[in-house]
Structures are given as structure tokens and as C-alpha cells.
Amino acid sequence: MSVAVGAERPQVVSHVQQALSYTVFDCKWVPRSARLLCLGSAARGTGIIQLYELHGARLELLREIEKPKPIKCGTFGATSLQQRYLATGDFDGNLNIWNLEAPELPVYSVKGHKEIINSIDGVGGLGIGEGAPEIVTGSRDGTVKVWDPRQNDTPVANMEPVQGESKRDCWTVAFGNAYNQEERVVCAGYDNGDIKLFDLKTMSLRWETNIKNGVCSVEFDRKDINMNKLVATSLEGKFHVFDMRTQHPTKGFASVSEKAQKSTIWQVRHLPQNRDVFMTSGGSGSLHLWKYEYPAQRCKKDSEGSEMGVAGSVSLLQNVTLSTQPISSLDWSPDKKGLCVCGAFDQTVRVLIVTKLNKI
Amino acid sequence: MPVWLREHSWRQTLTAVYLSLPLRGARATAANIFCSEQYLKVSIPPFLFEAILYAPIDDTNSTAKIGNGNIFFTLYKKEPVMWDSLTLANAAKEKLQHLRENAVLKAHEKAKEETEAKKITKQEHKKYALEATMKLEEEERKRIEDLKEKERQKVAKELELWKNQQKDGDTYKSIQKKGKLHQEIEPLKERKSEKMNQTRIPNEGTSKTRLKSTKGCPGSCSIFSQNLKEEQLPAPRSAATIKVNFTPRVFPTALRESRVAEEEEWLHKQAEARRIINSDLSELEDLKEEEKNPDWLKDKGNKMFAMGDYLGAVNAYNLAVRLNNKLPLLYLNRAACHLKLRNLHKAIEDSSKALELLTPPVPDNENARVKAHVRRGTAFCQLELYTEGLQDYEAALKIDPRNKNIEKDAEKIRHLIQGTMQSS
């Protein structure tokens, strides 16, 4: 692991800090705007959605919406740019899609899971990628379900434990490989360290592995290309970067792992404008900015002649400690390079700007 | 006996006296010269020169130059008066002594004062140095802060610019859209009506309803374009399920590498505890795996009891007790067998043991305790120990007051007791 040199390092500048009166679980930029959403749970046990707009050096609250159940996660991934509907998963296992202009009734609603929806992702919207818009949810009941907003009540894909198998909590889900209308994969991370890759075109398990620590967050570097890299973060401060271009029949995908800190790495997010730069947020309230470097040769032949991937290396560009509590959510703005928002368990949401990203 | 140096020469002006003292081959250093206000002494053993000066001089400013086998004194007078002679003539011995002592004292004091002054200046110098370094560091820090602040402001300005661009872009786009749509609406409407005549696909159906419900709201213009795009989207996937197997894990908590060692140890201990450590009974080696399990044996015993094979049941329970003597149900059931076999004393023993193991008395083991009391009570009665029997029945009633059978039996026993008391 190498560290970038002095004055040319990207700096993480804290632009705005906003104290909230509830626990924030997820924060997301509204695409094509300077607005952001905070999703969370109020002390009285209800869900809160707050819409803020960035005005100079402060955040102005535009709208506050309260819902009966606390909200854990949300995504804009499966909606079109004109509609910008928000899909949320709540503590009760309900998947709802809201029109923020008229939030009294959801546009789509289903009680997808028996327990809390831990993670949600969307693909096919926002003008990115091709194919049907789909939403995937991963829940504590051990199942991962893929939904199509045009089909009510039943998921279009259901990844559930075999009959009689004791379930493990699914902590994170991510879409990937959606480069044409048919192809799509879902990657799911579980609390026993399992990472499973499901292929939705063939409806089968494509790959699985176990990284020896509960998986907190997985993300592909881009959803809408042939799958290139997958970053999986876990407990105990470790994360793994898998090279997804070459799959070996027995060894799977090549990976490089890094231990950044002692505490859990809660989230990983790739910079939308540069797929080799990503930020991890930690349980000690710190953020680390990393860059992945590709190896000289991305694949090589092993002793039997089958192709095997070669993992590159990861270097730390910058790290900064913003809070004493874990930073549980992180989102880059898709419109302005370097602008990101993070929400921490000290009930504050911070807007940060990362400078000098052009020079990487 | 010191050698006096007497060949000195001197001259004076109004303000100063210049004294030249040749040293006869002796080497002089500053330490050999002692001078106070009115007393001057040069002592280079064995040579000695001493002079009580005519008038006081300013000894701090006066100088002595040592060189060329000569000491040249420049003494500045306190009062600008011409002296008659260098030294005071006719000085009495006592006066001399007195003057000498005074001089020494004065010199001491001066020395002390000088050291004090030196200390103070040293401290001040240190303080100054400290303050200077602090200032430097402060400046450094400020410089860094300023850099950061500048960076922040620059970035904030860029952000504002970008935001305004977004806003402008949005309004521009919406104006454009409105313009375009006015042109497009007409042909679109035609196309829509065409499509409606064709066979309905569920996809279209939903889009149509959406059109209806949101007609008239400002988003309707986007709905038109949305519909167009929707017709190009593939149909929802056909539903399927993928069955998943997990890496097995005993604990419900998440897997952490740092805890793996502890967890392994705990599991190991549990396995040990469950294994049978009765190694001195050689028959146990002949037993099948299931016959070593006390629960299995209990079930066997229950089955045999139900079939009426009370001796077999007792055997089963015996073996089970040998394997695990902490299960109250074994004793309870064995007591029932003994009752049937009319081994009343053994029945009493077993019920007592069962009751012992069924402490603490909680609602969970109510059932078992009632049974134990009833069985013991029955045994007592059959042994004609009616009072003890009644005690047990009453205990059973206390636990389960609604049981009619126990009440009836308790009544019977009371009658019996009263009967025997009457008759005896």
C-alpha cells in the first residue's frame, strides 16, 4: 500500500454540517440537482425522509415527510430522470416507491420481506444502462428479492435459503453487469462472510466465496458495464477488491485485500466519474479515499491452461476523521465531481468536497 | 612574608588616576587584582601591592590592563578633585584593617548582586526565546488554516456556480420541452389511438391507467415521453427462485475473524460436556450409540410402560439414570413403574428424588411436581401411612387446586384417617 505525495493529494474538505434530530441511516443525492435526501428513524419509532437543498454554506430543509415505519435504505437507481421516484426499504420489510412531489401514498408498495430490509439497489433508471428497471432488496430474513415496479406483489427473482437451512442475515446487495437488456447480476453479502453472485439471465448462482468476516457493503465499480471490479467491505476493518473480468472455474475471481483500520468498514462507494477511485467509511468515523491500480497483465494462464485473473493494487489517497461515531452512509453526487454527502450515527449529515480529483 | 611591590608610578587628571605597577617577572591575571571603592590590592604570591586610595573611586568603571610585565590601572574618581597623593598617608593600622574588611565585605555584596542580576537576565532570555518559538509555531498553524480556508472558499464558489448552472439548465430544458411537446402532442395522440385499437399487452394497460390518473398535472408532459420509452423497455422478467446454501455457522451473530478462536473453544467444550465420561462400566462399550442417549432410553421406557412391560421400563430407566442422574423425569416415571409393581418403598424414594430435582418450584415444572406428589401420596396410602399420604395429596392440591381426582382422593383419605382414629 502506498500513500500519495504531499501537496498533490486530494483533500477532503468539510463543506456543511447539519445536525439532525433523528438517526440517519441513509443519505442520497437527488440526481440532476443540488438536493439531497436523508432517510432515517425518529426517536418515536417513525420513519423520516428529509429533503435538503445546498445553499452556499448551509443546507436548507425543503421538505420533511414522516412515515409509520423507520426507513433503513433508499435508492434512485430504478427510476427515470424525469420522475425521480425514491425507492425505500423500511424496518418492517416493506418496499415502497415514493413520488416526492406527492408523498402521501406510495406509487408502488409491497411487503417484500418478513424482517428489516437492510439494503436496496436499483438499476435501469436515470438514463444509465439498458434493460428493465429493477430494484433488489436484501433482508435479515436471509432472502434477496428482485422487484420490477411494473409488477405488483411478487418479485421477479427470489434468492432464498434451501428448505430447512438456517438463514443468515443479508446485509448488502448490489446490481452489476447490466450492459445490455438481458444481462444482469446481483451480488449479495451476508453476515457469515458469504458473498454470492447471482446471474439473473440464467437464474443461477454464478459464484460464491467467504471472506471470513461479515460483509457490510458490496459495490460494483459500474453497474452498466461488463462487470469489471467488485469491492466488498467487512467487519474487522478489511475490504477486498475482486477483479471480475476473468472467472477461474475453481478459484473464482482474483482479489486483493487491504486492512485499513481496526473498526468495521460500513460503506464503499465508487466515484461516478472515475471508476478506479472509491471511498470507504469506517466505524471510527473516518473516511478513506483509495485508488485501484491495474496490474500489468489482467489475466494469466495457470498450470492447467485455464485463465485466471490477476488482482492489482490499492493505494490510499487520503484519509480524514470526521466524527467519533460510525459513518454509516455515503453517496457521491453524480453531477459534480468530488461532491459527496455522508451520514453518521452522531445524528449529523455532512456535505464534503474532495479536491484535486482531476489530477489522479 | 609577602614581598611588597613599591615601585609604582602614577599620574592623574581631574577625573581619573592612571597607575602603573611593574611586576617583577610575576604573571598577573584578573583574579589577583582586588579593588573596591577606596582600596586596591594586587596579590601575586609572594608579591603584594596594597594601596588605600586618597579618595573613593568608581570601581565598576575603572579598568586594569595587564601586559608587558606591567599592570596599568585606569581609576575613575568619584569626585573630580586633584589628589595630593595616591594613597592616604598617616593611616593608622586599625583604620587600615577596618578599611580592608569593609572593602572585602563590599566586594562580596557586589559579587552577590552581580550573580542575582545575571540570573534574572538569563531567565528573561529564556522567556523571550520561548515566546519567539510559540509565535513561530502559531504563524505556521495559521498559514495552514488559511490555506485550508482558501481551498474551502474556492470549492464553495465552484459549487455555487455549478448549482446555478443546474438551475438554469433545468429551466431552459423545461421551456424547451414545453415548446417541443406542443408540437409533438398532436402526432402522439394519433399514435396512441392507433395502438389502442391493437391487442392489449398488460404493459400497455398499466401505462394507460397511469396516463389517466395523472392527467392534468404538470408532470403529464413527461408522461408522454415516458410512455414512449416504456414501450421500448423489455417486459418484466419471468419470476424464478434461486435456492441458496449458506456456509454453516452455529452462532446467530455475524462472523468475525478475531472471535473465531473463542467460538471454536466454546463449541469444543460443549461437545465434551455432552459426551459420556463413564468409562469404568465396560457394558457401556457394548451398547449401541442410541442406547447411550438418556433421552432415547426414557422414550423406550415410556413405551414399555404404556405396553405394560413394567420391569422392562424400570430397566430402561435404570440405565438412563446411570448415564445422566440429573433428569427428574426419569425418576418420576420410574416411580410410576414401581407403583404398578407395588415396590412402594422404591416408589417413594424415586418420587422424593424427582421432587428434589424439580426445585426451584416454577410454573414450568408444576405438572411434574403434581405427579410426583400424587405418586408418593399413593405409595404412602398403600403402606397405610395415611397422614403422610394426606400431606402429599394436599401439597398436590396446593399446586393444582382444580384437579377433581386429587380432591376426591384427598377426601377419601381424610375419611379413612377419621375412621381409623374413631375405631382405635
From TrEMBL, chain A:
<dbReference type="InterPro" id="IPR020472">
    <property type="entry name" value="WD40_PAC1"/>
</dbReference>
<keyword id="KW-0053">Apoptosis</keyword>
<keyword id="KW-0677">Repeat</keyword>
<keyword id="KW-0853">WD repeat</keyword>
<comment type="function">
    <text>Key assembly factor specifically required for the stability of axonemal dynein heavy chains in cytoplasm.</text>
</comment>
<dbReference type="InterPro" id="IPR001680">
    <property type="entry name" value="WD40_rpt"/>
</dbReference>
<protein>
    <recommendedName>
        <fullName>Dynein axonemal assembly factor 10</fullName>
    </recommendedName>
</protein>
<dbReference type="InterPro" id="IPR036322">
    <property type="entry name" value="WD40_repeat_dom_sf"/>
</dbReference>
<dbReference type="Pfam" id="PF00400">
    <property type="entry name" value="WD40"/>
</dbReference>
<dbReference type="GO" id="GO:0006915">
    <property type="term" value="P:apoptotic process"/>
</dbReference>
<keyword id="KW-0963">Cytoplasm</keyword>
<dbReference type="InterPro" id="IPR015943">
    <property type="entry name" value="WD40/YVTN_repeat-like_dom_sf"/>
</dbReference>
<dbReference type="GO" id="GO:0120293">
    <property type="term" value="C:dynein axonemal particle"/>
</dbReference>
<feature type="repeat" description="WD">
    <location>
        <begin position="135"/>
        <end position="157"/>
    </location>
</feature>
TrEMBL record, chain B:
<dbReference type="GO" id="GO:0005576">
    <property type="term" value="C:extracellular region"/>
</dbReference>
<dbReference type="GO" id="GO:0036159">
    <property type="term" value="P:inner dynein arm assembly"/>
</dbReference>
<dbReference type="InterPro" id="IPR037894">
    <property type="entry name" value="CS_DYX1C1"/>
</dbReference>
<dbReference type="GO" id="GO:0005634">
    <property type="term" value="C:nucleus"/>
</dbReference>
<keyword id="KW-0963">Cytoplasm</keyword>
<dbReference type="GO" id="GO:0007368">
    <property type="term" value="P:determination of left/right symmetry"/>
</dbReference>
<dbReference type="GO" id="GO:0030331">
    <property type="term" value="F:nuclear estrogen receptor binding"/>
</dbReference>
<feature type="compositionally biased region" description="Polar residues">
    <location>
        <begin position="198"/>
        <end position="208"/>
    </location>
</feature>
<dbReference type="GO" id="GO:0036158">
    <property type="term" value="P:outer dynein arm assembly"/>
</dbReference>
<dbReference type="GO" id="GO:0007507">
    <property type="term" value="P:heart development"/>
</dbReference>
<dbReference type="GO" id="GO:0043005">
    <property type="term" value="C:neuron projection"/>
</dbReference>
<keyword id="KW-0524">Neurogenesis</keyword>
<feature type="coiled-coil region">
    <location>
        <begin position="130"/>
        <end position="157"/>
    </location>
</feature>
<dbReference type="InterPro" id="IPR008978">
    <property type="entry name" value="HSP20-like_chaperone"/>
</dbReference>
<feature type="domain" description="CS">
    <location>
        <begin position="3"/>
        <end position="87"/>
    </location>
</feature>
<dbReference type="InterPro" id="IPR019734">
    <property type="entry name" value="TPR_rpt"/>
</dbReference>
<dbReference type="GO" id="GO:0003351">
    <property type="term" value="P:epithelial cilium movement involved in extracellular fluid movement"/>
</dbReference>
<keyword id="KW-0175">Coiled coil</keyword>
<dbReference type="InterPro" id="IPR052004">
    <property type="entry name" value="Dynein_assembly_factor_4"/>
</dbReference>
<keyword id="KW-0802">TPR repeat</keyword>
<dbReference type="InterPro" id="IPR011990">
    <property type="entry name" value="TPR-like_helical_dom_sf"/>
</dbReference>
<feature type="region of interest" description="Disordered">
    <location>
        <begin position="191"/>
        <end position="216"/>
    </location>
</feature>
